[in-house]
Structure prediction request, 177 residues.
Amino acid sequence: MSDVKMMTKDLTPYQDRTALIGVFTALSIVFGIAENFIGLPLPGLRLGLANIGIMLAITMLDFKAAFAVAFLKAIIVPLVTGNFIVKVSIGLPATLASTFLMLTYFKLCGRFITSVSMGALGGLVHITVQFFMAGILYIQSPAIYGLLPYFAAVSTACGIFTGYTALMINGYLKRSQ
Prediction:
């Protein structure tokens, strides 16, 4: 019997779902905190590893679970890493918007897509919303949008990487059930 099946064999479907939400949220939070120690060439840019838990919730659970994971990640990671107000005012709308669009994309095209394309979409939407929120709240200059294409290209590439990672984890979890 596999490890995952062994751990969840006595759980009801509701308990199993709740446990998975907890696992995906914890995964997102741990990756979100760890990401702060990974340097990338563009300031403020992250790999998006924290979004793996959200993508797993989208593909393995449902929209409520995905939004729960996304919301908790967007609140708890800034609480732990600091600069709460700025990170939440920019990151929470971006996380919720990217989660909504990834969910919509998955629901409309589910069996024809993978987490890789979903991650690319999520990365692009996330950075775009972050730029618009920063432009509205903090940097009232149109010059900020001149940087968006560069950040969008890198964010899409990072989204492809995190999507591929989510695809590998999802495959492992499905094989172990």
